[in-house]
Design a protein that fits this description.
This is DUF397 domain-containing protein. The chain is α+β, with helices and mostly antiparallel strands. 17% of the residues lie in helices and 27% in strands. It has a four-stranded antiparallel sheet.
Length: 59
């Protein structure tokens, strides 16, 4: 799946007054993609669903 086909979304906690200051996430069947919302065409990080869940649990 190419990154242009992914459905990117921001957290519901993102501040509407600072729309560029957050990360965006896209969920695919076997990977989670994470990118900087200010630079959507730049490189992004890809992790497994298990790694993403572990990260969120530790926040």
């Amino acid at each position: 799946m190419s990154t242009t086909q992914l459905h990117w979304f921001k957290s519901s906690y993102s501040d509407d007054n600072e729309p560029g200051d957050c990360v965006e996430v896209a969920v695919a069947p076997t990977t989670i993609h994470i990118r900087d919302s200010k630079s959507p065409r730049s490189a992004h990080v890809t992790v497994t669903p298990t790694t993403w869940t572990d990260f969120l649990e530790r926040l």
